[in-house]
Specification:
Strand order of the largest sheet: 3-2-1-4-5-6-9
Structural class: alpha/beta
Helix content: 40-55%
Largest sheet: 7 strands, parallel
Strand content: 15-25%
Order of helices and strands: EHEEHEHEHHEEHHEHE
Oligomer: single chain
Shape: globular
Distance between the termini: 32 Å
Radius of gyration: 17 Å
Amino acid sequence: MNILVTGASRGIGAAAYDLLKSTGHNVAGHSTRGSEELIAGDLAEPGAPRSLWEAALDRLGGRIDALVNNAGIYEAVADDSSDAEWHAAWARMLTINLQAPADLSRLAIGHFRERGGGGRIVNVASRAAYRGDSPQHWHYAASKAAIIGMTKTVARGYAAEGILAFAVAPGFTVSEMTDEYLAGRGGAAIVADIPLGRVATTDEVAEAIRWLAIDAPASATGTVVDVNGASYVR
């Protein structure tokens, strides 16, 4: 399969990118700054999703079979910050974590339809979509809840055309994105809240992404897979 993975330079995205490549798939990866291997694109910019999509299509020979929307940010904003800071933080979070995945998903659906239907979208959400997050991360939890709503809408709206949509909702993972936050809150307290006794690894989340992008049965469309050590069950 030909697959586009956003946010592939580190953490969950890098693990998913490496796993998909190692299992025989043609993968175009993305990061904000790009590299010799990864396509550059700042998803805070309105035109970036389309530019990224077109570059990935070119790299993958004009065909993409699956899109993995992994890129995202986890930036704090205090609830007593100025109005300007508050609004800027919300706008940036929603642009990168929600609008960009929506834009890419729309482009993917158009592409899937043009070639006769069939394709998969996997969105990386978060446990925070269901459980909420810290008082500094209202906007993060809101963005991830919206991603799940979008995933279910796509699943219901396009299943008849063979276009499938899934989401993964990790809890804390061992990655560059969470290291500082884990240290700040105290790793022991976080682990104490996880019945499994440890945070998830990026490889575990990557395997869930791989399964959804490649092997999950069509009837599972709309599914959200939790990877959180039972720290939140629903």
